[in-house]
Fold each of these.
Amino acid sequence: MSGQRHIIVGISGASGAAIGARIVERLAEQPQCAVHLVVSGAAARTLHAEVGPDSLARLRDLATHVHDVTDIGACIASGSFSAAGMIVAPCSIRTLSAIAWGQLDNLLVRAADVQLKERRRLILLVRESPLHLGHLRAMTQASEIGAIIAPPLPAFYLRPQSLDDVVEQIACRAINLLGVAGLRTNAREWDGSGDCNLRPLMK
């Protein structure tokens, strides 16, 4: 489809694979999005364990393009490829550190580095707790070079009723952080009155 916005979704090997899966599902619902999916080997194991044995195959079917994590010559590895941004969800500490210090040994990290050098949005849903000083320094370094660090924390003020509600809110928040005009979600958002009404995160 002409005029589609290319959005890259990387899923790395931290716990929380359902969030990355939900981001792919949400983006795939929007005809103006072309979803480029890259999944690390560790993430494939985590998807199997946390989401289900058929989850990776389902995400591959939903994505517009699926890239092998070892294919450093893929289109998303080039700055000349016009991507609208990238989300890494979840982002493992290993992936965070590789992005922070330019250790570009796989396509997921290379694609993330491209977003930074081209001054595009890179959203990292860093998933780890507790954090030691090395983790914090890696997050500082990634932030200083342009990444947005967005730990996948529940919005308790929205009073989630289920784990699915938590996953949905975090996934939609990550999509919102891309700042891409025209992307719409129907996630609950705080309205300032104490009530959490259903309305789009982006207009």
Amino acid sequence: MRVRELHVISNGQSELEHFARVAALIHPYVTAFHLREKTSQALELWKGVMALRTSGVPLSKVIINDRVDVACASGVGGVQLNYQSLEVWAVRNAFANMRIGRSVHDVQEAEQMSYQGADYLIYGHIFPTDSKPGQLARGTKALEEVVKRVRVPVIAIGGIKPENVQQIMVTGAAGIAVLSGITAADNPLQSAKNYRDALDI
């Protein structure tokens, strides 16, 4: 049975050194760490990657959002693209061995990005979340439709807590992505264990 994926995403608000310290504690339970720092410059992202490496986090688990140049130069495991990023096919042609994720928001976009060569998709938000105030959650039925229509793994994101993980997994999703549920928890290690336990049921 394929190991269900747990992705942990930085929130763009805490210092990357703090994220690295948390990652060092929890990485045995985590599949991938995303540096999603929309306001950070290349050098800041590089320093964040180096902080993760120094903390003992394998670079193979690190994913840089959007910045293909930093991902390539730092030797991390992959890059996460969005609608403002380079096209998946362009990154795939230039970096054949890089793991490429793409954030998607509907079935049509998911099919297109899968066709272009994305290795996995992140889809959401599934449940209501404070990070998307006033925006309607897409729900598990829409997630299930995306999973059925593409051949690559789909990672669910948005408002996911340990107690609703199984609602996600019955859709056939490959795993979940979490932001504040772990990094902002009073006990990030215990929180990561709780998510991993919920995934492994």
Amino acid sequence: MTSPAELAFEKARELIDARDLAGLARLIGDLPTLVHAHGKNGNDLLGMAAATRDERLCRILLDHGADPASANVHGWTALHQAGYVGLPLLVTMLLDAGAPIDVPARGDGGTPLVVALFWGHREAAELLASRSLSPGNLRVAAGLGRADLLDELLAPDGTLAPAAGAHREFHRPHSGFPEWRPSEDPAEIVDEALSWAARNDRSSAVRTLVERGAHVDADVYRGTALTWAAAQGKASAIKTLAELGASVDHRGTFGGLSHGEGVTALHLAVQGGHVDAVRALLDVGADPSLEDSLYSSSALGWAEHFGQTEILAVLRGA
């Protein structure tokens, strides 16, 4: 039988989903202990509000005493979620409320900064990095485009500092991505960093990493540097990687095991609705007729499926 407390928590969740600010404020005002309650997997209302990308909901909960340090069973806090959705205002709000910045989630090294860099949210990542660079490994340096840190961690001759490959257990923000265990292989560390530079549109870091030994078509973990750049809509990185010899029609993996097989960078740029990235890929010679392995569909078919009308016109023009 569902308890009154569980019913109240579910009602609060529904109000958050509906973006009902007044209703949430009334309910929390009547039942202030709700801000400390936890639901499935230990998720609290503040984390759920952060997931909606509506800072106003988070403000209500914080003003009623929600704990910004509260974490779910994976160690995931509201600040991790702010990095995940890439909202600088929400990041600032949570930091000002006392949210911890160096706590890991979903594996060693999974700080809010790393989560923001994973998805290529540059502005949120730079804000987090201004407070803490933890963990200061090579993929963080690459994602931030920090030439000084790259020089400290990766010498011109390709020699790695011990810290370059440390704290890399975090590899996925949710279980939709498959399990993976990073190794201490220097080539893997450098190649992985290349994808983090690309997904954050750090062209200078991309060039540095390739000059120091990164393989432009390496698929370290569910995606080459080019596929990550395309998926995140990073046109500058796409052009840089192509100039450095990346195969623009490389068929690879991306995301979870049930999708992303045999995709090209163009498929992923289309799926994300990234018009500039689509144009950049076409400019460097991407073939729009190639089909993926799971759905046997071209980039044009993906554009039709996802309702990308502007991209459809670009592809048809090509």
